[in-house]
Design brief:
about 230 residues; 10 strands; 7-stranded mixed β-sheet; about 20% strand; alpha/beta; Nucleotide-diphossugar_trans; Glyco_trans_2-like
Length: about 230
Amino acid sequence: MRVSVVIPARNEEAYLPAALEAVFAQTLPPFEVIVVDNASTDRTREVAEALGARVVFCGRRGVAYARQAGLLAARGEWVAMTDADSLPTSRWLEKLAHKAPGAVAVYGPLRFYGVSPLEAALSEWGYRAFLNLMALLGRPNLAGANMMVLKEAALKVGGFPEVEAREDVLLGYRLARLGPVRYVPEALVLTSARRLKGGWIPFLLRQARNLMGDPRGYFGEAGERER
């Protein structure tokens, strides 16, 4: 199985080295690692290339466009996605690949890092409970920081929709109409707590709005992710 790993990145020179280190250290080595430079103004491209990633440029700002550019550029049959501020655990790709045969997509849970141990544990337990519920309801909730799709299937349904947020979830819904989409509890990814800027309540309210269909997310006026 050839798996391309795609990491969208806009001005991520600080976070990117740790993310790439985690991806290159996988027990199932990726076929290739692609960093999509989403019109960065810092050293994102230089950092990615120095660490061994293939860099693809996407001038249209917005994570959906960057993910789509990475999907199109990938040369593997399967395309795994994570984020520049995320740290896949060492057996992430191995666990996803194990459940991939016969499916069109697989995905796993997340846990915050950079918070207290209690907050980290609660973030993981809460998210796992949510994913289990959504899987039972037949509504797979893919996250861009922890998902893997069959490239042919993803392109068949049009790839990532051009929205500000929820592009990952919406692609999952499209793929679920095409074939099995499987939740893989063992495929854990750690993700930074910068989304908690402003506190837990605004974060949870934004998640609830997204779940109800609100396409807005963590973006500035020009479409880039807020920092």
